[in-house]
Write a structure and sequence with these properties.
Chain A is an alpha+beta fold. Chain A is built from 11 helices and 23 strands. In chain A, α2 (59-67) runs parallel beside α3 and α3 runs antiparallel to α4. At the A-B interface, β1, β19, α10 and β20 of A face β1, β19, α10 and β20 of B. Chains A, B: Belongs to the PurK/PurT family.
């Protein structure tokens, strides 16, 4: 059989760093990638086969873009799913399927889905407005999550006590029991049209000892074989029950009792999978490509333990980006810098990431913290 | 110190697969790459920041191209070195240095250099024309090599006996003693402006048991520690004596007595280094980039034993390329396909390569041969 992937055009909605890293994999397969993004300076711009500047939430823009592609996928959730539904009806392959993107866009729909399908998740109550949240003072401590258009922390509010209730969202949201978790982990799963399904080894978030911040991510997660297996089963279960094709990052809590609770999912490559480029036999970006293009999935085994540190713009610096400490970092064995093609830095803007490979997990963690100190993005 | 590699423009003379793979590394550093190539469909075309179609051997073309770059390098030897000399005089960084490219372009100059610098190489005689070659019948068996413009086998003629003398080149050439070698190996070395120098682990050519053809390349080479060390020393010695900055592939023979003889060098990434993308801590392409951009060199250790199989267009097929056997191949753990962006296949055209990772070297060789059987490029 002759497989002609290079004859198919893949369109990606979103032209950020996730799409950029998918293109980096696609180059090896001669697959032409079309990108749609509102930003003319989008990270994908210069390496895409074709770039269209336009709004991802606009029906006509997405529809016109999609007509020139054979297969469509996303690298960001906030897209016009009606246009994708129309394109799918007209015979385009759209993965993830539009109704799944739509479900995931709404955190309330997401949580209901877990509940209805016996997927373990923290208890929650749907709330239509602030008054409804305020009525749940017995449910605290809790997390108030906006139903739609919450991204990267905007749309999530922790309510420790009644004093916090005034911060509740004035819009359809949910109130979820605050989990006293032991660990936060993530499992990325992929599934293709043929139903082939596999999971990447769980990744763990390393928290700052006192501040409630994630310092870096590392794999393999330091969890028991039992918890490891359970986490993978839960992630695969979500994928199967969604009947989704594509790649799905499942963020989970491991409770003090070793139970798994699904926190959130993202139907695209995810920050918790960046290390896979150097650390695993197949990267999440390659896997995303394979899953939507109808190719066989790749092996996800870890080759070497790895940590991933995000490179965020330093606070107090805005302007043309400069990377401080690059030479020192890249002179080290097993340190890999990925810059995202963004010329301008702003405080906390995701400008790149660094992956560290190291066989000894304690040495790995030490190196990850050291890298965080060495590399700074300033202007 | 703030290192601003992303503010420098790198120009590469040549837009083939070697340049394409350098660009794949450069993407991670936000380094903009300009490409010059005569072919409008060159492999680099769609992923280069800027592409100029033009002749690499033309002075004005190369000079005008180079004026818009900060740093210049090559991915093919046959370029106009006078233009590069002029650009270097005008303050551009040109690596490899033009006089070194010029020396290597001429096999006679190359061999003289080895002789004058005590670099071990097979005995040879310079010959100005066919008559001069014919006068060397006592020197046979030998290899007749054209001085200039021999590439990929064109310009090399084996003279087993007097009967072959009529095939000798009618142009300045050299006659080199045919080496009864035990193995053919290759060592790639890199050196930056700061004088930092390191070598990749030696790679071995695996020959067909009867036909005199290389079936695949693999690393680590199956040579003694002593030969391994000697090979690396010789390669570094060549680099140091050339005082070259950039990357140099040194092809060598290991004689029946375990001696090293330098066969040829290439001042650019080389076929014998393709496996390094997945197999080593740093790839040769990344290393090429680092060496010419003034960045610290990367660690070259092998992570996993690897083999590399070239994907050449099947004999008898010309036209739009189709890859037969792709699915079967990429479903295997540790198999990596790299297609070079060439739409049209021709018999024996270099269309891509496949790298196989496998801890057990005998299993590795078996898998390499199996992959050769599975993947075919047809039209």
């Amino acid at each position: 059989m002759q497989e002609n992937y290079q004859q198919k055009t893949l369109g990606i909605l979103g032209g950020g760093q996730l799409g950029r890293m998918v293109i980096q994999s696609a180059i090896n397969y001669n697959i032409d990638i079309h990108i749609l993004d509102p930003d003319q300076h989008a990270p994908c711009r210069h390496i895409a086969h074709a770039f269209t500047q336009g709004k991802l939430t606009d029906f006509d823009t997405v529809y016109e873009f999609g007509k020139n592609c054979d297969i469509l996928t996303i690298e960001i959730e906030n897209v016009n799913t009606d246009a994708l539904e129309q394109l799918a009806k007209e015979g385009k392959k759209v993965f993830p399927q539009p109704h799944i993107i739509k479900l995931i866009q709404d955190k309330r729909e997401q949580k209901q889905f877990y509940k209805n399908h016996q997927i373990p998740t923290a208890d929650f109550i749907l709330t239509d407005n602030r008054e409804a949240v305020k009525a749940q003072s017995d449910f605290l401590p809790a997390v108030n999550k906006l139903g739609k258009e919450g991204y990267d922390g905007r749309g999530v509010q922790v309510l420790h006590s009644e004093a916090d209730l005034d911060k509740a969202f004035e819009a359809p949201s949910l109130v979820e029991k605050l989990v006293d978790f032991d660990k936060e982990i993530s499992v990325i799963v992929a599934r293709n049209e043929q139903g082939e399904l596999n999971a990447f080894p769980p990744v763990e978030c390393a928290f700052h000892p006192t501040a409630n911040l994630v310092e870096f991510l590392f794999a393999p997660a330091q969890i028991s074989d039992e918890v490891n297996q359970k986490a993978i089963e839960v992630a695969k279960d979500v994928m199967t029950k969604l009947d989704m094709v594509g790649i799905l990052a499942v963020e989970m809590f491991v409770t003090q009792d070793g139970e798994i609770l699904v926190n959130e999912v993202a139907p695209r490559p995810h920050n918790s999978g960046h290390h896979t480029i150097e650390a695993n036999f197949t990267s999440q970006f390659e896997q995303h490509l394979r899953s939507v293009m109808g190719m066989p999935l790749g092996n996800t085994d870890l080759r070497t333990p790895a940590a991933m540190v995000n490179l965020l713009g330093e606070d107090g610096f805005t302007g043309e980006a400069l990377v401080e400490g690059m030479d020192e970092a890249i002179h080290e064995k097993g340190v890999y810098i990925h810059l995202y093609g963004k010329k301008i830095t702003k405080p906390f803007r995701k400008m790149g990431h660094v992956t560290i490979l190291e066989e000894n997990v304690e040495a790995l963690k030490y190196k990850a913290l050291k890298i965080k100190d060495i590399i700074k993005i300033k202007a």
